[in-house]
Amino acid sequence: MAYSDKVLDHFNNPRNVGSLSKADPEVGTGVVGAPECGDVMKLQLKVRGDIIEDAKFKTFGCGSAIASSSLATEWVKGKTIEEALQIKNTQIVEELALPPVKVHCSVLAEDAIKAAIADYKSKSAAVVTEEVKAD
Amino acid sequence: MGDVEVDRNRSLELVISSVVAQNEQGNNEERLMSVETVMAKMPIYLDNHATTPMDPRVFEAMTPYFLGSFGNAASRNHAFGWVAEKAVETAREQIAALIGANSKEIVFTSGATESDNIAIKGVIEMYAEKGNHIITAKTEHKAVLDTCKYLERLGKAEVTYLDPDTDGRISVESIQAAITDKTVLIAVMAANNEIGTIAPLKEIGALAKEKGIFFFTDAAQAVGRIPLDVNELGIDIMAISGHKIYGPKGIGALYVRRRRPRVRLTPVIHGGGHERGMRSGTLPVPLCVGLGKACEIAGAEMEEENKRIIALREKLHQGILEKLDYVSLNGHPEHRLPNNLNISFAYVEGEGLMMAMKDLAVSSGSACTSASLEPSYVLKALGVGDELAHSSIRYGLGRFTTEEEIDFAITQSVEAVSKLREMSPLYEMAQEGIDLATVQWQVPHE
User: Fold this and answer.
1) Interchain pair B443, A40: CB under 8 A
2) In a domain? residue A134
3) Which residues of A touch B375 (CB under 8 A)?
4) Distance between CA atoms of B75 and B58, rounded to whole angstroms?
5) Which residues form the domain of A28?
6) Which of A14, A40, A104 comes nearest B446 by C-beta?
7) Domain for residue A131, yes or no?
8) What share of residues in chain B are helix, strand, coil (percent, to 5)?
9) Per the CB < 8 Å rule, is B369 touching A1?
10) Does A54 map to a domain?
C-alpha cells in the first residue's frame, strides 16, 4: 500500500515530537490506545489562559498513526480549548488522505486531543480546589 | 558462487539495457539518470520467504520451451510432444533427486497452495472409510489451515490444531497424545514461513509409520534450503514450491509416496488424467523445466550456499544486537532455516518500522493494514505477546544477498529503530521504569 505524500512528509519530518513536564499544572496529557492493538499515542498540551501554546506528541504505531498525531499537534497549537475540541477525525482523514483501514489512526488522534484537554481541565480544577482550601 | 555473481551481473545488465533501450530517443544525460533512478528506486530485497528472484540459470533453461519447443508433453504421436515430454521428465527427475524420491512420485501442480489442497482433501476423501481425523498445528500456513477448516465445515474431517512450544516446534509427544483410531493424516510443515522453525520431521515420520498414519509436510520453505530425504525422514506426501527456490511462479509439485506405504489421493482437479490422474491439466512445460533446474541448482549448491547465508544472517543478527537493546528473537535459535531472522524490536511498531526502513524490503508480523488489526497468528501461537508481535520484523536472506547489503541493513535497521523509539511513548515509559503490563490503557471510542 502506498502512503500519501502528506503522510510521508509527517512521518519523515514529524512536527512537535517530544514531551512536556507532566508536573506542570498548565500541561494536559492524553495517552490513548494500547500496545497490544499496535497503537499508543501520547499527546501533551501546554495551556495558558484558554490558548494552547504548545503541543508535543510521542506515538507508537504505523506511519499513519504517527502522521495523524503529528498533524494533530500542528492543528491544536494556537487554538483555544473549545476550538481544539471541535477537531474531528474525519478532517484528519481528509487532510492525510488516509485509506479506510487507517481511519482508526485518526480516531486515536481525536481521542488523544480530547484526553489531553480533559486531563488539563481536571488538573486546573484541582488547583482551584487547593487554592480554595488555602484560604 | 562465482558463476552466480556473473549471472546476476548479467541479469542486472539486462535490466539496465532495457531501460536504456526505452530511452534511446533521449540524450545521454537523461539516459544515465533514468538508469540510476530505476536502480536506486528498488530497495534491498530481504523478503525471500515471500518469494525469491528467479535464478538467471533457471530462466535460461526455460526459454527454449516458450517458443520453438512448445509441444504438449501429452502428445504421444509427434516430435513436438516427445521433446516436451523429455523436458518434463528430466525436470521430474531433478526434483526427485533433491528429495531422495523416485521421479514417478512427483506430481506437478500450480504451487504449494494447490499441493496442500490436493494432499489434505485427497487423503480425507480417499481414506474416508478408514478415518476422518487430521492432526495439524496452529502455526501452519493458511493453505493448510483453511483447507482443514473447509473440510471441518463440510463435516468431512475432524481436526486437532496443536500448540507449538515457545520456539515454534511441534512436539512428537503432543502429536502422539492427539492420535485417535480415526486419525488418517498428520500435517506438520517442514519449516515455518514466518519464524523459520524446522519441525522434528524424522521423529514425526517414525511415529506416523509406527501408527500407520500418513505424514504430510508442507515444505515450501524448506525444500532446497535444508537437506530433505523423504525416505530418511519418513515423509509420505510433501508440498514443493517453485518460486521459493529461485524458480518460476505458478509451478509447484507434490511428492506422493508409491510404496511402503503407497499413498492414493482423490484428485481435486478432474480432467484428462494427467499426472497419474492426481492432477489433470496440460503441463506448463517451461515452468516444469524451471522448477527442475531450480532443484538441480539447489541440490548442487545448498551446502556452500548455506554456509554463506548463515554467516550473513548471524552478522545481521549480531550487528543489530550490538547496537540495540530490547531485541528478542522469534523462533528456535538452532532448528531454524539458514536464511530466516525474525526479531521483535520492543516499543516500536512493525509497519511504522518498515516505513522507516524504506530501503529494505522486509515483512512484519504486525497487521495494521488488515481489517482485523490482529498481529501474526504464528507469533501468537508461540505465546509472543501481541505487543511484541506488532514489533516483529522478518528478514529473509537469499542466494543473491551480499555482505554489503547486510551491512547496509544493519545500519538502516538500527537508525530506524532508534528514530522510532525516540518517538515512542512506550520506550519513554520503559526508560522511566514504568511496567507497561500494569498500565490501564484507554482503547479508542470507535
Assistant:
1) no
2) no
3) 38
4) 25
5) 5-122
6) A104
7) no
8) 45, 15, 40
9) yes
10) yes
Q: Is B446 on the interface with A (CB under 8 A)?
A: yes
Peptide bond into B261 cis (omega under 30): yes
The amino acid at B274: H
Place of cell 479506510: A100
Domain ranges of chain B: 59-297, 302-428
For the segment(s) B302-428, the CATH number from 3.90.1150.10, 3.40.50.10780, 1.10.1740.10, 1.20.1250.20 is 3.90.1150.10
- Do residues B286 and B66 lie in contact, with contact meaning Cβ atoms separated by under 8 Å? yes
C-alpha cell at A31: 495517552
Class of domain B59-297: alpha beta
DSSP labels, A89-108: HHHHHHHHT--GGGHHHHHH
Distance between CA atoms of residues A65 and A43, nearest Å: 12
Cβ-Cβ contacts under 8 Å for A85 (sequence gap 6 or more): A113, A114, A117
- The whole-angstrom distance between B368's CA and the closest CA on chain A is 7
Grid cell 506438520 in the structure block, residue: B188
DSSP alpha helix (H) spans, chain A: 5-12, 63-76, 81-85, 89-96, 103-134
In-domain check, residue A12: yes
- One digit per residue, pLDDT tens: chain B, 446 residues? 344 444 555 555 555 555 555 555 455 555 455 555 555 679 999 999 999 999 999 999 999 999 999 999 999 999 999 999 999 999 999 999 999 999 999 999 999 999 999 999 999 999 999 999 999 999 999 999 999 999 999 999 999 999 999 999 999 999 999 999 999 999 999 999 999 999 999 999 999 999 999 999 999 999 999 999 999 999 999 999 999 999 999 999 999 999 999 999 999 999 999 999 999 999 999 999 999 999 999 999 999 999 999 999 999 999 999 999 999 999 999 999 999 999 999 999 999 999 999 999 999 987 654 445 678 999 999 999 888 999 999 999 999 999 999 999 999 999 999 999 999 999 999 999 998 888 888 775 54
Q: Is A62 among the residues known to form the active site?
A: no
Residues of A in contact with B355 (CB under 8 A): 3, 11, 62-63
Which residues on adjacent β-strands are paired with residue B215? B186
Q: Which of B233, B231, B224 is nearest to B252 (CA)?
A: B224
Grid coordinates given for B324: 540495540
- Indicate if A105 belongs to the active site: yes
In the DSSP assignment, the letter for residue B442 is B
Residue A10, domain CATH: 3.90.1010.10
- The single residue of A67, A84, A105, A107 carrying the catalytic annotation is A105
ipTM of this predicted complex?
A: 0.91
Q: How many domains does chain A have?
A: 1
A103 CA to chain B: closest CA distance, Å? 10
Distance in angstroms (rounded) separating the CA atoms of residues A8 and A16 = 16
Q: Please tell me whether residue A72 adopts helix, strand or coil conformation.
A: helix
